[in-house]
Automatic annotation (TrEMBL):
Superkingdom of origin organism: Eukaryota
Molecular functions (GO terms): protein heterodimerization activity
Name of the protein described by the UniProt record: Transcription factor CBF/NF-Y/archaeal histone domain-containing protein
CDD domains in alphabetical order: HFD_CENP-W (cd13732)
The species this protein was found in: Saccharomycopsis crataegensis
Amino acid sequence: MGNSKVVKPLARSRFKKIIKSKLQKQKSLKNDSTDLLVYLNYMLFLKTLLNEAQALQSKEDSEELTVVHLNNIRSSVLKRFRG
């Protein structure tokens, strides 16, 4: 079946620290659930990216999903998620 491993999701506190470090100094996260919305949007992006790459894989009759499939579909998925 391949070499698949389960990845544990980030802890909320660690994710908040990562988001805060990427934000500019004048912007900040409020003490609400903004970080959860960012995380859910990120997870939706990954799911969409994988689903479309798998569709491309099956369209090409390839046996496994490769980096080439992901790279071919990445720009169109990024355009949709950027707004």
